[in-house]
Design a protein that fits this description.
Elements lengths: L1 H17 L5 H16 L8 H6 L2 E26 L10 E25 L2 H9 L1 E3 L6 E3 L18 E7 L2 E4 L6 E4 L1 H8 L5 H5 L9 H9 L3
Parallel strand pairs: 4-5
Antiparallel strand pairs: 1-2, 2-5, 2-7, 3-7, 5-6
Helix pairs in contact: 2-7
């Protein structure tokens, strides 16, 4: 049954994505806009302290969620990691997939943000794939700018997840979703086959100018 769910998800979403025509440059700009939107939310925002304490943050704009008896979720985005000096690095392209069984009907799109506490979780993603709730503990993230000022919100979970719909962010459970590196997208964007680690470390790669837009917003947090 699980195999049937994945086949359904891939076939259903491929129809939408075939017409989307989203280039890697555009995906980076969408990720930058998502971050900028975070800065403009006065109350229901991801707490700034979360970004200060996170090892990495993934942004997956326009994630498609569909359902008709079987359901699932699919999206492409980027993940950036922070160095020891607190400076955010270059984006690595990733894919999110989730399949589910049960009565479902409808379709929606939302922007997802995932904050990673540990290097271990990110290493699991870049070496193979990461299944949330299996390879790394996951929880819906807290909201509000006062959250965590007097305490560490990262004591319990390795990954905190959010979704934005109708202009508001809210914690969302993504347990069971799988994340994997999109090697083909990275090769197209950086002009050659390159490892995620080399991208993060800016090692012997040519970084497209559009990355400056994303990093400017990231490092403004």
């Amino acid at each position: 049954m699980k195999k049937v769910v994945w086949i359904f998800l891939i076939l259903t979403l491929s129809i939408n994505l075939a017409h989307a025509g989203k280039s890697e440059d555009l995906k980076v700009l969408q990720a930058a806009k998502t971050l900028k939107d975070l800065l403009n939310l006065p109350e229901n925002a991801i707490p700034p302290i979360l970004f200060k304490k996170a090892y990495a943050v993934a942004i997956i704009p326009s994630t498609y969620k569909v359902g008709f008896l079987l359901g699932g979720q699919y999206g492409n985005g980027v993940i950036c990691v922070k160095d020891d000096k607190g400076v955010w690095g270059n984006p690595v392209f990733i894919t999110l997939m989730e399949g589910s069984v049960g009565f479902q009907l409808g379709a929606s799109s939302s922007d997802l943000v995932l904050a990673f506490k540990t290097k271990k979780a990110v290493d699991g993603l870049i070496t193979s794939k990461l299944t949330l709730g299996v390879d790394a503990s996951v929880a819906a993230g807290p909201v509000g700018r006062e959250v965590g000022i007097n305490g560490d919100i990262f004591f319990q979970q390795e990954v905190y997840t959010y979704a934005m719909t109708k202009g508001l962010y809210a914690g969302v459970s993504l347990a069971g979703s799988s994340l994997m590196v999109d090697e083909a997208a990275n090769a197209r964007f950086y002009g050659k086959d390159v490892s995620p680690t080399d991208i993060f470390n800016n090692y012997e790669i040519s970084v497209p100018p559009v990355v400056k837009t994303l990093k400017r917003i990231f490092n403004g947090y």
